[in-house]
Amino acid sequence: MKILVTGATGYIGKRLIPLLANENHHVVCGVRDKLRADKSYKDDEFIEVVESDFLKPETLQNIPKDIDIAFYLIHSMSNGSQDFESLEERCAVNFRNYIETTNVKQVIYLSGITNEDHLSKHLRSRKNVEDTLKSHQYALTIFKAGIIVGSGSSSFEIIRDIVEKLPFMIAPKWLNTKTQPLSVRDVLYFLSRSVGHEETYNKTYDVFGPEILTYKQMLLQFAEVRGLKRYILTVPVMTPKLSSYWLYFVTSTSYKLASALVDSMGVQIIGKASNINELLEVNPLTYKQAVQLAFEKIEQNSIVSSWKDSMISSGRLRNNLHKYINVPTFGCFKDYKERPVKDITKTIDKIWSIGGTTGWYYGTILWKIRGYIDKLFGGIGLRRGRTSQTQLDAGDALDFWRVIFADKSQQKLLLYAEMRLPGEAWLEFKIEDGLLKQTATFRPRGIWGRLYWYSVLPFHGFIFSGMINKLVDVET
Predict the structure, then answer these.
(1) 196 with 68: CB under 8 angstroms?
(2) For residues 261 and 79, what is the distance between their CA atoms, to the nearest angstrom?
(3) Which tens digits make up the pLDDT trace of 300-323?
(4) What burial class does residue 241 get, using C-beta atoms within 10 Å of its C-beta: 0-12 exposed, 13-18 middle, 19+ buried?
(5) pTM for the whole thing?
């Protein structure tokens, strides 16, 4: 079958695509920016990448008409826009209108469980999208999941941050909210096994794990899996705003995403039973099993996708990376250094391992202080780390940077700063003519931008020199 996957660079989409391709389906990946498409897709005869933005109907003509099945995986936890719900509705309307002109027989949508009378803003939006996607031209299959647990998922990484950093915690009362966590493996089973399955046509299913747990129980069970002893005291005095700040400072999430999560975590998420497990032969994992499986992936350095690589993890960039790939020159300050390279392969490997647990090779404490300052002023800090310890692709998060371009064959890595700055900043590593060329570029915004540059200039002298020396193994 020919299958369209929208949201192809998202957490679920990136995991679903190879699964469908391995089943010999021809997969059409709908992305807003081809730079963010996985490089491995270029060499896969079963995968095709097309640029399509569902807020821009004219771009949808790039999607072939002869597709049989379509996955609608477009949604966001960002709440920065006042008309968030109308934007999601517009995407769904544009998708439905175009898909009705194709050969699609079935649309599969991953939504959220919405069985409570009081719903968060994001769950209300998901429910509205469900109604918007209904059509007489194709069959609609809806899966509604709650908390998704897997390596790189937002819930997993946030719980990991909390558990591994805080032996004792005074936490908001929403930790007593009940939910039914489901492993990402099982989500993918439900989605992939429903392809062309006529018994699921025009049906809606809640999909969930075998246990009803509070967020507090999830934290404690996570600690058990990690062999940690943790103590949690919940208090009723934390307002949603205070809860958002608590989540923001303790974890790697942005404040906007923390606010959205707090809004959602106050709603009980309990699914309605159906025959879907038997119909698709899925036996969902327990929460502990899902956590253990996630850590197996982490230990193997085989995390396929992470919420941290989503553009909403920072709020600074949108999906179009092309805008930032041409580093400006006019009106910019630059710190340029070059060194002869002794071993190109070794230096490239070092560059591709930079950040995260590896660090920045020189002045680590100063990088950490810069991260703390960024967090204090509402930025993302260094806590996002990186998804893979050895691989980098365009669009990946890298501490408080975003990967704009990464190509080992061209021996070039370009990063864009997502920390709080009175301007814009790029950091480029490039090997040419046996030289490693390292360029930090800063385009200031107003007088504060210029003052900022001159205030950090003394640190640049030895931090950037020390870093490039370490990359080429020069003794300092």
Answers:
(1) yes
(2) 10
(3) 655 555 545 555 545 455 455 666
(4) exposed
(5) 0.73
